[in-house]
Design brief:
Layout (H helix, E strand, L loop, with lengths): L2 E4 L6 E10 L5 E10 L3 E21 L3 E9 L2 E4 L4 E12 L5 E17 L2 E10 L4 E9 L15 E11 L7 E6 L4 E2 L4 E3 L2 E9 L6 E8 L8 E7 L4 E2 L6 E3 L1 E6 L5
Parallel strand pairs: 1-4, 10-19, 10-20
Antiparallel strand pairs: 2-3, 3-9, 4-8, 5-9, 6-7, 7-8, 10-15, 11-12, 11-13, 11-16, 14-15, 16-18, 17-20
Length: about 260
């Protein structure tokens, strides 16, 4: 049985850090990731060594992945008198064959009564090309709806969530789309005045390939009128990024009574 963890779940991965840097070669970028994985694997048997595979989905998609190296700790702890063993036997990084998301694979070994391999730290250095998957766009609204002249920081006004879309067919009733947030919102950028409108940009990077995505706007309380709602004005309703189509633009407009102008 494989232990599956996801970086976007803070109960499964703690202390996530991510750095992306350009290199002298303009066609390549270096990606450095680290964190603490929480497999919380428990056994109660000192008669044999148990082994399992832990997969940590890192939430970073690199369409031009070249290679990666990783380091995990601990390596191995044992005691002959007490008959226990805690070990990380092997670790490597590969992109998911469908989505391109990087996955850290770690082979675990455990032996002992009331033993638990609770956590391990990891660091990954990945080399990839300079193409980045992503979705960006703008959130707009009329000045008559909300005068944002005194605001420059759009993160206080709204954010956008990237969601995985899953079509659900219940035994009874109608089909519906289930939206699961990918984790982490894209806040609004600097607020700009454009004639009678205000606008602010947002952007996502390193989104997965080959999976349906949908984007939703979250308005901060206390600024827009209570009967306002955001509607999509451009771009596909459901976004599907591919190796030959790694970016997309999706715009929104906030209007009263759910009317998109």
């Amino acid at each position: 049985m494989t232990i599956q963890l996801n970086r976007i779940n803070s109960d499964q991965v703690k202390s996530w850090q991510y750095i992306e840097t350009t290199l002298i070669d303009p066609n390549r970028r270096l990606h450095i990731m680290s964190g603490i994985a929480i497999p919380a694997w428990e056994i109660n048997d000192d008669s044999k060594i148990y082994r399992d595979l832990c997969e940590v989905r890192l939430g970073v998609t690199l369409p031009d992945f070249i290679q990666a190296t990783c380091q995990v700790g601990l390596a191995s702890v044992s005691n002959g008198e007490s008959s226990f063993l805690f070990a990380l036997d092997e670790a490597w990084v590969e992109p998911d064959k469908t989505s391109g998301e990087l996955i850290l694979f770690v082979r675990l070994a455990l032996n002992g009564e009331d033993s638990s391999l609770a956590r391990f730290g990891f660091q990954i250095v990945a080399l990839a090309g300079n193409r980045i998957t992503g979705v960006s766009g703008h959130i707009r609204w009329a000045r008559s709806l909300f005068d944002a002249s005194q605001f420059t920081d759009g993160s206080k006004l709204a954010s956008v969530t990237a969601n995985l879309v899953e079509r659900i067919t219940p035994p009874q009733g109608f089909e519906f789309d289930k939206l699961t947030p990918l984790g982490g919102n894209a806040p609004g950028g600097d607020v700009h005045r454009d004639g009678d409108d205000f606008s602010m940009p947002y952007s996502f990077e390193h989104l997965p390939l080959g999976v349906p995505l949908r984007f939703t706007v979250n308005l901060s309380a206390g600024h827009f009128p209570f009967d306002c709602s955001p509607g999509q004005t451009s771009g596909p309703f459901t976004v599907l990024l591919t190796p030959t189509h790694v970016s997309e633009s999706v715009d929104f407009r906030v209007s009263q009574n759910n009317v998109v102008r």
